[in-house]
Amino acid sequence: MLETRQAAATARPSAPRRPSWRVVAVAMLLCGWGGNQFTPLLLMYRRLGGYSMLDVDAFLGAYVVGLVPGLLLAGPVSDRRGRRPVMVAGTAASALASLVLCFSGQSPWAIYAGRLITGVAVGIAMAVGSSWVKELASGEDAALPARRASLCQTAGFALGAGVAGALAQWGPWPMVSPYVVHLLLTAAVPVLLLRVPETRTPGPHPDGRGVLASLLDDLRVPAPARRRFRLVVLPMAPWVFGAAGLAYAVMPQLVDTRVGEWGLAYATGLTVLMLGMGVAVQPAAKRLRGGRAPVAAMVVMLAGAALCVAGAVVLSPWLAAAAAAVLGAGYGIAVVSGLLEIQRMAGADDLAGLTGIYYMLAYAGFLLPALLAGLSAWLTYPVMLAAVACAALVCLAVVATGVRVTARAGH
Question: I need a labelling partner for 25 at 20 to 30 A (CA). Which of 130, 157, 295, 310 fits?
Fold first, then answer.
């Protein structure tokens, strides 16, 4: 086992061209674009496609089903076999998913397939792309690669939702044109990735049992960092996309009757606002040194959850927009600080694997809207969102305690 891991050790080029990370960043942006372009189209599929809420939720579920193996397997495989081939495959899969969705029409199975492939592509981009950007930026400020990676993926999520929502609201062929735009932008990127320097040298091919054990090793948090992982990363990570779920899945539905025929445009606007704030806050987040960033992220998340409670009580589109902006700021701080925590914990041989674990925990937050919808038969949204705010307060207390305890212990 140890020999296998040593044989797959990093073999970086002596001086990779610094602009090379930009090609990887563009690939991450476009994979994120493809992943989130479907979100503002949910209302369109219900109105024009005749799908029920259960159908639409199942389409979202197919995305998560693809995301899990993309996050958990792509990272460790790229640690062993190289970043380039895995990232090329992920970007090609993103383009293929849009091609499938272009022709999905009234076929739910085609939509399931397209969303499943999209999830795999986004999982690869997050786990492998973030690691590759960091390695290509060797020698720079340690926090800069994490900010670049999170900035590109957040910008991709925002652009995908904004362009797709605008085309669906005002453009021709609303069930086709959003995917065509993404396909045209993405098609050439896999070829460009072939010119990016490889930062991992493929090791020998162990037998099947050896491969499985090697992959599992990459998904283990190093022992010295486990306490900080449990007390800081674990309670914060689900709020990354939990905030997104509240901002552009829960709140638009609560105030839908107040915006009338502009429901699709309003939901798109909240998505762009939330993710745009996530982009805007990241340069300021770099000033939060040490353990202050995770604590600051949870403070902002708590404020956003409180605004969601107020918006649910008065059903105000303006309060919903304010909540989306604040939650976006919390998202921006949390996603960067979480990546930095993982990059400090991981060794050269398990960086992509642990990055995948982090994003899987973060995406668990997307279950929050479905959980609230399931409980809505017994509880009102103001009551449930108040419970969400209380949960944010508890997580804030755990993160603040964890930062203080692990800093004192030197972990």
Answer: 295
